[in-house]
Amino acid sequence: MTAxxxxxxxxxxxxxxxxxxxxxxxxxxxxxxxxxxxxLARLLQAAHHAPSVGFMQPWDFIVIESREVRASILTLFxxxxxxxxxxxxxxxKNLYKGLKLQGILESPLNLCITCDRSRGGPHVLGRDSIxxxxxxxxxxxxxxxxxxxxxEGVGVGWVSVLDQTQLSAALNLPEHVYPVAYLCLGYVSxxxxxxxLEARGWRSRLPLSxxxxxxxxxxxxxxxxESGS
Length: 229
Hints:
The protein has about 230 residues and is α+β, with helices and mostly antiparallel strands. The chain contains seven helices and four strands; from the N terminus they run H-H-E-H-H-E-H-E-H-E-H. The two termini are about 25 Å apart.
């Protein structure tokens, strides 16, 4: 097979896969150095070039620099985190309470990526059958930004322990706009070799060979799998 003229070079492919394998959910390694405007612009452009069903582009980006706003979000996190801890018992609860699950004030910048559920009107191409495709599309914007950030040496942490209704009120979101991802962004002292939750013993990565099916659910697939770096 002959490669097309716009094929990636070997080094370009390596860079892409490196960003995928070395991306981390950062909580504890943030530095105070600001993110330059041109770097932030590239990250937002990368997010904005995510694929979206019906080309609806349902995302908006709220760049949060105000320490006052971030402190209010931290309060919401602390309230939600206390409730979350009560769902566990024994050693699991102790381990949970020892995890650092946010870098809201330590990071120089917070970013909320939202989904406008009215964008494109009542009938978006490809959405009538699966209404959640606007949310799925917004998650692709999050992933684009995350991989671009890793390539720029910028850490990203997703703060998921938040009440979405309270978060919406804190950010003055319209009723039809849903906060998909509240992110902490900043340069970091290091990117960990393993995801932090794996390193701390919370969960391990599942073997890919156990997750691939052939033709229908539960049927074997004959392919082989090499582990990522």
